[in-house]
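Catalogue entry: protein

Sequence with per-residue tokens
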Amino acid sequence: MPLDFSRIIIIGLGLIGGSIAKAVRKENVNLPILAIDPDQNSIDYAEKTGLINRGYNQFSIDLENNDLVIIAVPVKYLESVLRLMKPKLSSQIKTTVTDVISVKAQVLENIKTVFGKVPQNFILGHPIAGAEKRGVENADENLFVDRKVILTLDDDEEERSLALDSVERFWCGLGADVLLMDSERHDLMLAATSHLPHL
């Protein structure tokens, strides 16, 4: 599995966050995986089963060079998570940040509210994957195999190329097919496909 990161930090140990941890662990058993989640039961389960090396209830982790931070929380919590992250994201720390949230317009709004603009090391993402059951205890190491992951870029694509390439290789390493598009197209496409079954 091609990985450009020396440590993975997952914020949110639900089905998606847990499945990312399980898929990474399957491919690279020695890669350190840390997680942040307010639910101590989820942390205990993930630590006990070996999905993560260590879990935290609060954002008390110092970010380091070559970290990949994956935000896997409901969108309503995103802005508060970003505010906790901001003091730890100095220009000297080369941390790549991505997310798995489905509505990119809201993600962009929250990022710009907190940071003023989208930092160069932020790569917005959305894996088109899920399951009927929720929670880290239902994590599936094959959840992303042959599934689409959409990475969205709206400006300064050239400046983001290194982070983009790394995130793209990360998802491909988990078996996903990566697509690139702007956030507006992403949201329009997802709105259409999500309403299609109702029609």
About this structure: Residues 195-199 have pLDDT under 50 and may be disordered. The two ends are 40 Å apart (CA to CA). The helical segments are 15-27, 40-48, 78-85, 104-115, 161-173, 183-195.
